User: Fold this.
Amino acid sequence: MPPLLILVVAAPLIYLGVHFSNPENKGAATGPLVNEPGYTQPKRAPFTKAKQREVSQVLREFVLTAVDRQDVGRSWDIAAPSLREGFTRKQWSRGDLPVVPYPAANRGLGRWSFVQYSYKDTVGLEVFLFPKPGSGWSAMTADVELVKGHDGKWRVDYWMPKRFHGPPSLAKAKPTAKAKAKAAKAKATATSHRAAGKRRAAPAPAPTAVGTPKPSRAWWILPIALLSLIALAPLAIILNSWYRNRRAERDYLRAHGGS
Assistant:
């Protein structure tokens, strides 16, 4: 009888735990990841010889003008609209652009050390540049992305130094504080420019899940049941003891003719 009493008391508690738990959310994406609405995963395309030649010419021109700051105004036409956004042609031509300057030597310009990704109208490259002798700069690796416009021309969409390698080039005169401040300003401008909505040169984002699956709370059943038993055990012992004493008293009175 006492075990039956425990079950009667514990059953409602277990039911409430199961009822108010959330073992399944039909609106949550618990299956395979799905694409975000409106997002189309770009298809990879081979980086053909013809594409390489076109990209190489634009890349070389961009390094000489926008990066090395030689007649920087010429880089306006080979910069993608997304890179030029927020700047006027006048600002760009006087060196106020979101590209970190670097004294690139005329060595290996227009070449890349690694192809990060290649799509039909987009290519991401990792380039390696050498500094001019006596500049006081180290060799540098940079990330660059080029996009092909509707007119069929390639333009630079993103440029950012990645890391510097080895000791600085033996310099007769190290970069002045003014030059360093200018480079730091350009890097900060490029970073804020990207934060304002520019795409970083990286592989296309992987599909993400729509909604966040909520974890099941069905595991509450066991703790609730255990806590219920722990809380009811003393009560069950007391009730059992009272019941046995009461039954013994009745048996004693019945045996001795009591009422």
